[in-house]
């Protein structure tokens, strides 16, 4: 089997490339500007593949350029799906959406059937992608994934956990944070990559599925784990600019649907992830 992969050179894509090898699949990187319909059409037409994993997206843009979320995440995905449907009708396409579509009102271990309430342009663009992608279900075998927070080597320090790992590795004395008591589902990019690889080859994957661990930890838990790893203590100072009012105390993903689809899949523990990150040189890929 040959699987075309968009976003292959990104943080997650590198690990998905390796995970596909472990399930005996050849990875075919797809590098095209999703906002250029002609370029997407040409690349798809000239590429041999059986199925597609679509990771390429915009996660960060300038405040004034919020339109980029929709150009890439929504319209770009539709452009890709349309080209794939003509080149390979009936092909499976695994789409990376986001758990952010559940919105700020989500709480507990969220199931795929929970209320959808996206509250920022990134989340809205992903939800719009989900809704629009359904118009290709008559021509493609679509699997929509909703990953929760995940991290690993190569993720930039503008993300929380890489920031904390970097502070401990440099043995900083102080770190500024917001609400350290909130509990969240923190996955490992290697486990996420294995989930994508599993879903692309599974016999009957679900149409919509969370990628998560089903376990939550607080920022205080992470600080404690890193302190034990490094044998170093950092003074935490609460920066009011980082504090979110009315923050949900407990939020994670319900992992049952993913486990049912991939019985042999097992997420790594947060302790394992932090040790991996702390003990390896940090390489930031944006």
From TrEMBL:
It holds the Pfam family GDP_Man_Dehyd. It comes from the Bacteria. Residues 30-269 form the NAD(P)-binding domain. InterPro entries: NAD(P)-bd_dom (IPR016040), NAD(P)-bd_dom_sf (IPR036291). This is GDP-mannose 4,6-dehydratase. It comes from Sphingomonas mollis. The lineage of its organism: Bacteria, Pseudomonadati, Pseudomonadota, Alphaproteobacteria, Sphingomonadales.
